[in-house]
Design brief:
alpha+beta; Ubiquitin-like (UB roll); Fumarate Reductase Iron-sulfur Protein, Chain B, domain 2; two-stranded antiparallel ribbon; 7 strands; 35% helix; binds iron/sulfur cluster; binds FE2/S2 (inorganic) cluster
């Protein structure tokens, strides 16, 4: 395939960025989107130009590092896949592909296609944990019976990889799908009840402090989420939040 790429280039967080055009040949359908960018970077290095900086780590849909806005969609045109799992066979010879970083005030661009998503870390640190004694007296997890349906829903919520596509997809740059997944994975389990009241209050407070917008039920986050995190988690977080505030 021969492709025309329009890539966001930005020197650093303070510089003004711009779209730059590149032409790329020899792209194969079996390449992942990141491998296609590797080929582009080899071409740039061969020409003595600076390679495009982008985030990645596992390249198998686990870590949530790869975060690209591809033709206006977080993680591109395929459903339920991350950018690293997106294959070039989803595109056609001669296509023009627009590649940008995730756009949100709370995810400032650091360089080219890399954004700072440490706001998510701070939300997680505000309450995304349970107090378990791990000093040699750890209780066997199976010693606490858990309803199968609740265990399944908690596991579904726990598959959130913190990629930030939900924020990038939302017209309000809301982080409610992410935060609600992190609240739900504990709210559904008996082990998560001890800190439940404080957890939802702290995580929602931190989410607001980070400048993310509110949810207006558009549902774009759920559609673009590579892990299929359900909007039901947002409803659950709202219920948890209101009930926590009633308790004081
Ligand atoms: S909810 Fe989905 S889109 Fe949002 S951070 Fe988690 S995995 Fe990514
Ligand atoms: S590089 Fe880890 S999820 Fe894509």
């Amino acid at each position: 395939m021969k492709l025309s790429l329009k890539v966001w280039r930005q020197k650093d967080a303070k510089s003004k960025g711009a779209m730059v055009d590149y032409s790329l040949e020899g792209v194969e359908g079996d390449m992942s989107f990141l491998e296609m960018l590797d080929v582009l970077n080899e071409q740039l290095i061969d020409n003595g130009e600076e390679p495009v900086v982008f985030d990645h780590d596992c390249r198998e849909g686990i870590c949530g590092s790869c975060s690209l806005q591809i033709n206006g969609e977080p993680h591109g045109p395929d459903r339920l896949v991350t950018t690293c799992q997106l294959h070039m066979r989803k595109f056609n010879d001669g296509d023009t592909i627009v590649i940008e970083p995730f756009r949100a005030k709370s995810f400032p661009v650091l360089k080219d296609l890399i954004v700072d998503r440490s706001a998510f870390d701070r939300i997680q640190q505000a309450g995304g944990y349970i107090s378990v004694n791990t000093s040699g007296n750890t209780v066997d997890a199976n010693a606490t019976p858990i309803d199968k349906h609740a265990a399944d829903e908690a596991m579904d919520a726990a598959t959130c990889i913190g990629c930030g596509a939900c924020v990038a997809a939302c017209k309000n740059a809301s982080a409610m799908l992410f935060t609600s997944a992190k609240v739900s994975q504990y709210a559904l389990l008996p082990q998560g009840q001890v800190e439940a009241t404080q957890r939802v209050q702290s995580m929602v407070r931190q989410m607001d402090l980070e400048g993310f917008g509110n949810c207006t039920n558009t549902g774009a986050c759920e559609i673009e989420c590579p892990k299929g995190i359900s909007l039901e988690n947002i409803a659950r977080m709202n219920r948890e939040y209101f009930s926590a505030n009633l308790k004081g």
